[in-house]
Amino acid sequence: MYDLDNKFSKIKVLASKPIYNKHGTVIIEDTLEFANKKTYDYVYFKSSGTVAIAAFKNGKMILTKQYRHPLRRIVYDIPGGAVEAGETPLQAASRELEEETGFGAKKFEWIGRFSRGPSSQAIVDIFFAKVNRKRKRFDKNEIVGVEMVDFDAVVNRILKGECFDAALVVAALLVLTKKLLE
Fold first, then answer.
1. Treating both helix axes as pointing N-terminal to C-terminal, what angle do 166-177 and 151-159 enclose, rounded to 10 degrees?
2. Strand-pair category, 103-104 with 60-68
3. In whole angstroms, what is the distance from residue 32 CA to residue 11 CA?
4. Residue 42: pLDDT band by 50, 70, 90 thresholds?
5. Nearest Cα to Cα of residue 128 among 176, 75, 64
6. Alpha carbons 79 and 99: distance in angstroms, whole number
7. Which of 7, 24, 128, 134 is the most exposed place for a label (fewest CB within 10 A)?
8. Which residues contact residue 79 at a Cβ distance below 8 angstroms, ignoring those fewer than 6 apart?
9. Which CATH superfamily is domain 50-177 in?
10. Residue of 54, 77, 58, 52 lying closest to 66 (CA atoms)
């Protein structure tokens, strides 16, 4: 068995530099030195945090549909986005819900978080909200379709592999296990 805590606590960052910075995406390259003095270049996405909202109205989950170029297809997901400078995750969740769907909610409940993966700093905080009003803050620059879908149908689409966005899958799991719709 490796003593991973001890082995990796001695990693030094010898250099860190942005190698890409465009359209809100920043990619960093770090040069790491391990305890055995070997070096390794590690590339990752920089992030100040991300939010996703499991939003419901009248028992239906609010899904967004967006074109995702790396996949070359339209994907169902949930409202969400980056936490901007000076914002808390809760403030970002409220703003993103309104910008992407036009809906607002009085109350947001933090229900969990997940990591986007080993090549990203992004930790996604997931919030649960029941929308109560349509707002006028919908961002016309967002290219998003909005659909309200019965939650059982969303779960079935996930189980069939039709809906596979990570935030949507994790949010649905949290809503189910925490029994938030009961």
1. 120
2. unpaired
3. 7
4. very high
5. 176
6. 9
7. 24
8. 52, 53, 55, 62, 64, 96, 97, 100, 101
9. Nucleoside Triphosphate Pyrophosphohydrolase (3.90.79.10)
10. 77
d(C-alpha 122, C-alpha 50), whole Å: 6
* Residue 90 clears pLDDT 60, i.e. is over it: yes
CA–CA separation, 4 and 13 (whole Å): 18
Q: Residue 159 and residue 170: Cα distance in Å, rounded?
A: 12
Q: How confident is the model at residue 109 (pLDDT cuts 50, 70, 90)?
A: very high
**pTM of the predicted model as reported, rounded to 2 decimal places:** 0.87
The pLDDT value recorded for residue 143 is: 65
In terms of phi and psi (left: phi > 0; alpha: psi -120 to 50; beta: otherwise), the region of 86 is left
Classify burial at 144, counting beta carbons within 10 Å of its beta carbon; exposed 0-12, middle 13-18, buried 19 or more.
Answer: middle
**In the chain, where are the structural domains located?**
4-45, 50-177
